[in-house]
Amino acid sequence: MASRKDAQAESKRKAVVTTVVGAAAVTVGVVVAWPLAVVGAIPTAVLGWDWWRHRVKNGLRL
Question: Residue 50 pLDDT more than 90?
Answer without folding.
Answer: yes
